[in-house]
Write a structure and sequence with these properties.
Layout (H helix, E strand, L loop, with lengths): L4 E5 L4 E7 L4 E8 L1 H18 L9 E6 L4 H18 L3 E5 H10 L6 E6 L5 E7 L6 E9 L1 H7 L6 E3 L1 H5 L1 H8 L12 H8 L7 E2 L15 H10 L9
Parallel strand pairs: 1-4, 4-5, 6-9
Antiparallel strand pairs: 1-2, 2-3, 5-10, 6-7, 7-8
Helix pairs in contact: 1-2, 3-7
Length: about 240
């Protein structure tokens, strides 16, 4: 995988793009607001490429953040990553955005770190990770929980919880961790963490077929759920 790496994260309302390697982030840009992602993602990619004097065709790897997370955001990020990878024959790998946020919040410490992305309806997309000696340990795999459920299945008490879901349910998080939650705007952009995790064994998985690959949404989009409830069967060609 010669050539610099490009990382894209659009799983939450804060989208970020980073270019560099596992050892060094050369440039990173982010934008806040779900409505900005569709219009601003490709310009963000162009900015980090231009600032680094790199062309897309010269990339050695593209890392795209996996879900669960924002349905629309994930579709935007994956469409861009898959398009670049397919057009230029660039290897494509994915790492959970939750893992990236935990790594950023750990800031070089071992953790453990809980991550909670707001999933609405009283739930979060949650996970718990630790980073001992440069490795990653998944203590609770990404899933859909209430904060209480996540606390019950976690094998350890996390040092901190990060994410917009952690902020939304701050009182429960404080009772669980003993510390106030941390917002995503307070940590290094997740795309930067994805670059670092790209060299960690077991953190990423390759996407052999960029055209057919789909992110882990966590649950069906609201429109899909309504269609399936009305018709009593799965939506044809859905990614369930």
């Amino acid at each position: 995988m010669s050539g610099p790496w490009l990382a894209i994260d659009t799983a939450t309302e804060i989208a970020s793009v980073a270019l560099g390697s596992a050892e060094r982030v050369r440039n990173v840009r982010s934008v806040q607001g779900a409505r900005q992602q569709a219009a601003q993602l490709v310009p963000l990619v162009d900015q980090v490429l231009t600032l680094s004097a790199v062309r897309v065709r010269n990339l050695g790897l593209i890392i795209v953040a996996d879900g669960p997370g924002s349905f629309t955001g994930l579709r935007i990020g994956w469409a861009a990553a898959k398009g670049f990878a397919h057009a230029y024959g660039i290897p494509l790998r994915t790492i959970p955005s939750l893992m990236g946020a935990a790594h950023a919040a750990a800031a070089g410490n071992e953790g453990p770190v809980a991550v909670c992305f707001d999933a609405l309806r009283g739930q979060v997309f949650g996970a718990v990770y630790a980073f001992p000696h440069g490795r990653v340990e998944t203590l609770v795999a990404p899933g859909l929980f209430t904060v209480g459920e996540l606390a019950r299945v976690a094998p350890v008490r996390p040092l901190v919880a990060v994410g917009d879901g952690a902020l939304r349910y701050a009182e429960e998080v404080l009772g669980w961790t003993g510390r106030p939650p941390v917002g995503l705007e307070s940590i290094t952009p997740v795309a930067s963490a994805l670059l670092a995790l790209g060299a960690v064994e077991g953190a990423s998985r390759p996407l052999a077929d960029p055209v057919a690959a789909e992110p882990a949404y966590g649950r069906p989009a609201e429109a899909q759920a309504k269609w399936e409830a009305r018709h009593g069967r799965p939506l044809p060609n859905s990614s369930r």
